[in-house]
Amino acid sequence: MSRRYYSNYRGTGANTCSIRSLKSAHIGRAVRMTADANTLPFDNIPMKGMLIEKYNKLGFEISHPNLPKKVYVDFDQLPLIRLTIKNGVIEDEITFVENIVNHKMQLIRTLDTEYIDMLFKEKALETKQDEIISISQAIPGQIYIGAQCEEGNEMIYLGTFYVKETKTESHRNRSYVFSYGNTTNTYSTYMHKLTPQRVFFAIPAEELTTAEETALDVKYYGNDKQARWRTNWDERQLIDKKIAIERKQILDNSPIPRFKILDFAISSKRIKQVILTHKENKDFSDTVINKAAIIGSKYADTKISYPTVNFTISNRWYSDGSYMSKSKETIEDETREFFQAYKGIAIESCYYEDRHY
User: How many Cα atoms sit within 13 Å of 235 on the Cβ side?
Assistant: First the structure.
């Protein structure tokens, strides 16, 4: 009897720009994209009649005449909710693709829209090889599309920078006065050991900055940060509607364009290669100004002054703190100087990973 299998799994979790085709793959304990002494290669052609031999905590054990041996795939690598299975045999034609987001292989039905779109866009990309460059060749202010797929967002290249992340921790200090414990907190800020290189882009945005959102909250709820949550539900709904109306008015009447910053690891397959659009935004052609604008948007409450720019960066930054530099050799000194001068924070002498209490 034929049946369709269901589980908590909800589809492939993939979209066209997060998967790409694989001509060949390798089997060891699992299916892999790379080879070593313990793997066997196989041609990754679509397979019909794949057999689910069994399953356990490792996942599903599968077999097929095209595979050189039985192999386990994780539960999330097999799109059960989309498959028709009869006595353990998968009746749909499926094949492996690379899930770029999850950095692993997954099985997908060849009838799925994502797979068909992927093939179509990869074919279209073949005609654009002369328009694809390495990210190392990108020019600030020029507009590109990630070459991971033929369709994608146009992004303005801002530059490639080294980034030093920081982490602030509180320490509880207890003193005893007349047998009562009085607790106070002190704070320490550390740098992380690693200094990754990241690539920065700007895309158009329709959102307020953190400072603008804070100003709206203060206008309607006052300076007390807990006032919103102490306001009764009905009144809060009315106030939030007023805030939403004013937020839209601010966005509609913005005198200069708003952008959101995206950043990627320099090794990210999403931006390792990019497609030329032959368009540019000259407001972002200077990496020194780009860096200052990004840092200025992160630390709007500092006393530092930044160059006047013809745009607004609307990101709402949630990390503890970070600093950017073109130089890996001087970034630690620059980070210390920046946080001391503009945040009044002394960075501790040890790295976050090496701290001891």
Answer: 8
